[in-house]
Write a structure and sequence with these properties.
Elements: H1 20-40, H2 47-77, H3 82-109, H4 122-129, H5 133-146, H6 152-164, H7 166-178, E1 182-184, E2 192-194, H8 197-203, H9 209-225, H10 227-247, H11 253-261, H12 265-277, H13 279-292, E3 298-299, H14 317-331, H15 333-344, E4 348-349, E5 361-363, E6 372-374, H16 381-399, H17 412-415, H18 417-433, H19 437-454, H20 456-474, H21 478-493, E7 497-498, H22 511-515, H23 521-540, H24 545-553, H25 560-566, H26 574-589
Parallel strand pairs: 3-7, 4-6
Antiparallel strand pairs: 1-2, 5-6
Bound molecules: zinc ion.
């Protein structure tokens, strides 16, 4: 194999393309087994039989993931791959067929009424589920979710109305947004037209003050000019969410999200209130930043201004790989070994290519297969962090590969633990290596900027949503909602940051609040959780490492709060979340005065 090939991934461990048809037929034959098990199904059935049946459905699920993931990964590496497109259609059709066949078993397990079978009562469910320790949590969760499920007929109506109603509206919003062209107006310069939001947002981090301001103005003016349309879609999304929350028996709009995350309402409240209480830490930092930039009070336009015009440091893939692996190794030899495994097995697709998907991700195909990592390494320092992040995900999956396929991967609140941890370890290493004081300060400053954006800022998104869901219920105008956004932004930053009134329209571009209401707190949750865990590790030393590894090894086999409790962490206690802010405060101490 030549050098170039070694930088592409080898998907044979998922399934060699030449074996696709054979494998497809094998799954089709397996599907015949569904009827055999359906005959045996009964609330009084023996534990051994039940275990065998679950083993059958888990294995079937694992095979379906393999056959669906192969073309998905092929397409990520080459969006124009015609074979991938053909296999994708075949695999998806098979997956739907499998879903249709196994649905009755799912429904029966959930305790729903299924024709021709006796309902699975609570006592027998408990008896059977506890027989498979590893799946007890997953199966019970499924059953719990059934309490919020409507009748078959109602569910079908909801699905149909969603696809043709709110989902279509959301798509329309995306089309409207994608068609936006932004006019970048800088005094004394010719107006520039910026065609994508991503490009425009990058300019809000520019080293040039005028450019940052112009980028925000272009963005916010667009939102303002289209306020009526953006409001119309958001209002509908909120009303739709509220209505469904109610008919599904949730007691608040945010409870729907908390249930999906399997986190108690109280825990989320605690985490969010600690964030608000500790906001002074970020405000003090913004004060420092103002001084550094030579102004009395920081402007919201300059919130993400870089401190130092950084030397354009770059790193080849080989150097970056050595750095990431050795850094992970200093933290945990287990982490290093597992990350190495991913690279050695040629499961990493390294370089950007024509027709390759942009961005980066880690794909877990199942417990028996080493995860795949896609990168687009161009050599920037950001790319090095991305490598650490995605390899962190892979380590997480590998640590949890003793579980059944359906519970290998962690729930959303824990899903970013290993990835964020890997980035954190790399950050501290890079900081230690950097001898230039000015660059060091710039590195810390950027880290705090990022941490602010993933914690406090996200929490305020959710606080706004809670308010918006109430106000929209009562009835409010588009301008009224913008006013509330500005009020809350002032409450968040107003004491130390000058906020231009144009920021009232900022909410219009936060797509998460429309697409997945209340999702954003998970970012803050994951980030603070990891910072706190890392803080403990720094305090307690290597002795804390086995607890972190055990936590990761649990995958999604238990409730997040249980997994954390076993690591000695109580997410219901304010003190735990406060520990995260201690780490952030220590970073701030590293900044010069
Ligand atoms: Zn991630």
């Amino acid at each position: 194999m030549n050098n170039k090939d070694s930088k592409r991934w080898n998907l044979d461990d998922v399934l060699p393309v030449s074996q696709f048809d054979n494998f497809y037929q094998k799954i089709e034959r397996d599907l015949l087994g569904v009827e055999m098990w359906w005959k045996k199904i009964d609330p009084e059935m023996g534990e051994k039989d039940f275990e065998k049946m679950i083993e059958f459905t888990e294995n079937l699920g694992e095979k379906i993931t393999k056959i669906v993931d192969l073309p998905y990964l092929m397409e990520a590496a080459d969006e124009k791959d015609k074979t991938a497109k053909l296999l994708k259609t075949k695999a998806n059709d098979l997956a739907i067929k499998c879903q249709e066949k196994t649905r009755k078993i799912d429904h029966w397990l959930k305790g729903l009424e299924v024709e021709g079978k006796k309902k699975l009562d609570d006592n027998n469910a408990k008896r059977l589920f506890t027989a498979i320790k590893d799946l007890e949590y997953g199966l019970s969760r499924m059953r719990e979710a059934a309490k919020h499920t409507l009748s078959q007929k109602e569910e079908n109506i909801v699905t149909n109305k969603d696809v043709n109603g709110i989902e279509a509206l959301k798509d329309l919003r995306e089309i409207i947004e994608a068609e936006f062209e932004y006019e970048l107006k800088i005094k004394g310069k010719k107006t520039r037209v910026i065609k994508t939001q991503a490009e425009l947002l990058a300019l809000t981090h520019s080293v040039d003050k005028e450019e940052r301001k112009a980028a925000y103005e272009a963005l916010l003016k667009k939102q303002k000019d289209n306020l009526d349309k953006l409001f119309l879609v958001y209002q509908a999304a909120v009303k739709d969410w509220r209505y469904e929350a109610k008919i599904r028996g949730f007691n608040s709009p945010i409870a729907v999200r908390n249930f999906a995350n399997d986190i108690e309402d109280k825990t989320v409240e605690t985490m969010m209130s600690v964030c608000q209480e500790k906001k002074e830490i970020f405000l003090k930092y913004f004060e420092w930043k103002a001084k550094k930039l030579g102004v009395k009070k920081l402007s919201r336009f300059d919130l993400y201004a870089p401190i130092e015009t950084k030397v354009n440091q770059t790193m080849s893939y080989e150097t970056a790989k050595e750095l990431v692996l050795s850094t992970l190794g200093e933290f945990s030899t287990g982490f290093k070994k597992l990350a190495e495994k991913v690279i050695e097995k040629k499961h990493v697709d390294v370089e950007p290519r024509v027709n390759k998907r942009s961005g980066a991700f880690c794909a877990t195909v199942g417990p028996k297969i080493t995860p795949y990592v896609m990168l687009n390494h161009t050599g920037t320092i950001r790319d090095v962090y991305t490598m650490a992040h995605e390899l962190g995900h892979a380590v997480h999956s590998l640590l949890a590969n003793k579980h059944w396929p359906s519970v290998q991967q962690a729930n959303l609140p824990l899903a970013e633990t290993a990835s964020t941890l890997a980035e954190m370890v790399l950050f501290e290493k890079m900081l230690e290596k950097e001898k230039n004081k000015k660059i060091k300060t710039a590195m810390v400053s950027q880290k705090i900027d990022d941490t602010y954006a993933t914690t406090l800022r996200q929490i305020y998104f959710v606080l706004f949503e809670m308010r918006a869901h109430e106000e929209i219920k009562k009835g409010i105008t588009d301008e009224g909602l913008a006013k509330i956004w500005l009020e809350m932004l002032m409450e968040q930053l107003g004491k130390r940051v000058n906020v231009d009134p144009l920021f009232a329209y900022e909410w219009g571009y936060v797509s998460h609040i429309v697409e997945s209401p209340f999702y954003c707190y998970a970012y803050a949750f994951g980030e603070l959780l990891t910072i706190s865990l890392y803080g403990r590790y720094k305090k307690e030393g290597k002795g804390f490492l086995p607890k972190i590894e055990k936590l990761l090894a649990a995958g999604g086999s238990k409730k997040p709060s249980t997994i954390l409790k076993e690591a000695g962490v109580d997410i219901n206690k304010k003190e735990f979340w406060e520990e995260g802010f201690e780490v952030i405060e220590n970073w701030i101490k590293l900044l010069d005065n």
